[in-house]
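Usage

Read records sequentially. Each one opens with the input sequence:
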Amino acid sequence: MKRLVSTPEELERLATLLQDLSDSQPDDEAVPLDFLDGYLTALISGPTVVTPIAALSELFGDDWSAAFKETADMQEFVALLTQRWNVIASQIDPDRLMQSPDDLSLSPLITELPPELHAELIKKGLMTAEDAALMPAAGALWAEGYLQALDNHADSWTIKDPESEAGVLFDELLNSIAAVMLPEGDERNEYLQATYERTDVSADEVLNDALFAAQDMRLFWIHYAPKPEPRRVEELPGRNDPCPCGSGKKFKLCHGAPSSLH
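and closes with the structure output:
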């Protein structure tokens, strides 16, 4: 698959239309672009086929299109969302990942305020130091969106035996993604010590490993996707046995006749 890219203009317009859609939701249900990108990435990575439109219904309700006053805006939003979906799918295309397992192909949308901007906002009185400390880490909203998609599709994202090789690997990948959301403190340090055998791990390194985990999750579900239950076919009676329909005729002269089998 050819690797696609999202242009800055496309992403800016997608963010604007997403904001229009989010404005129609309760304040606690606003969906940032980072979150949406993580959500789409998980759906593309998962064991079942889901469409971008289905993602909109899951996040905004079945009447999400009513939030757009203009039909043209709604259609443009769907087109841009689908285009972004295709970009992510090309980045984590299984053939690409298997050919270059050591390359980080996934390039998520992550908004980050640089430390110098934090300092400037605090200096101008637009943000307190406490507020700056509570700002989510880079990639946290993306990881939150990823995990929300998993939660919404928990029935399909299930490993029957958590103690199996697949179950252990699944937990490792999931923990790596969730680690991006861990705030500074004991829980984060415990995770870093257990995973890296040290606690002086940069946020960039944790995020980088989370993105590799998301790539590995794409391959994981190709290998461990639930197999469909085999269709049970009952054994046919012998040609000279009575036909099971109860006609009294031999099977070969009734439902076993060539005209009945085709």
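Summary fields computed downstream for this record:
- Residues 8-110+136-224 form one domain.
- The chain has twelve helices and no strands.
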